[in-house]
Amino acid sequence: MNKANTDLPNGWLQTNLGNVINPSNEKSDPSGYLRAVYIGLEHIEKGSGKLLEFGTSDNVKSTKSIFHKGDLLYGKLRPYLNKLWLADRDGICSTDILVFSKNQFVSNDFLRYRLLSRDFVLFANQQVSGIELPRVNINKISPYQILLPPLTEQHRIVSKIEELFTQLDAGVASLKKVQAQLKRYRQAVLKAAFEGRLTQEWREQHKGEIEPAEVLLEKYKADLKKRSNGKLKLPLPLEIDELPQLPNQWVWTRVGEFVEIIRGASPRPAGSPRYFGGNIPWITVGELTKDENIYLKTVSSYVTEEGKKNSRYIKSDTLLLTNSGATLGVPKISLIDGCINDGSVALLGLGEIPKLYLYFFLKSQTRRLRQINQGAAQPNLNTDIVRNIILPFPPVKEQEAIVSEIEHHFSLIDHLENIIATSVRQAETLRHSILKRAFEGKLVPQDPNDEPASILLERIKAEKAHHTAETKKGKTLQPKSPKRKIKNGN
Question: Across the strands, what pairs with 312?
């Protein structure tokens, strides 16, 4: 909106932002205030104009800006975050926030929504100085061109925006509530699957046709023992009496009864060109937890042949489980050969047992695994813990049926989640469309009886001229007493 506009709505005026804002330079030492509300950029929500929380002056040391109820606060640091708040109380704020004083001729509520618009955010981002800490200043944003409506129409526009935004917010809140319900439904599907409820009908249809799970499990135990020459560390014995009853032909077991658990390894020192930068995929915890996909197909880092020797190489189609840090307990099936670091373990020797059955079971256990207290600062699932994870073990054919049922339910959930995500994005697009229409004069009708914006602008100029003259005479108003008492954000 920086081009000349000759086709303005009735009573509107094109001018620059600097002509209508009233910047405040009022500052104070926070020690002069008693528990005053303190607003930093971290307290303002990105792009919404909403306050998330506030601090107090007790923990603030350096000089800060003063604001009063009705002032508009604009974050000049990293303007792409577009942090604005219309003050509903007095207080102090970071000097990385510009304070626009309440103005009797222009609604700060109107300006708040105007500055939340995409075109202003784009303009402000083009005016920054500094690379690590990009900022704008009042002189940089003042030339920005806006269309100014009559004051009464400004109020009508704000009322309409808030009415429409309230409806949008309610719709988005409902969508997010459904999103949360779908996440819980995923967990409910997994719980039903591993209790046998998801395949109850399947079992009835195949009664007498399926080999009991215990037969296959005993075979795997024997194979595992043979492969390790009897040296493989075995899991703890099961206390069956303490476990819930399973469907017929299912058995309880431990992961280490039928698979071999090996931990990854990381070459040291990290980043050494001796180990890193080759052409062998380097499978880290970050790669395994970067998305919700079942399969890992690509990585962004690689190791050398020497790095491979100092790590743990796994073949494609291996089930992995992260075992350390805040993201432990995340399973993934790698579809690429590569080296795994010490933040994950590989589960080997599954053979005819469906990897997806064990994958989904481990997925259902992520929260529980993260709650295991080992008395260490860094959460960690050592191979003993993974080996001793208890799980229900159905016949293989039923494991396949369980996987099929889970995938069916999850595909429906995925479809609904995609619809909701699209709707949330559309709501955001509609929000910006509302603002665009509002500031083009298309959201509310014009009233020919409104005092035109040109008169507002003349009054603003006159007030600024008067203030400048008073300043030159040394008659500027003294700031309010720094000892005023502001408690509890009131």
Answer: 340
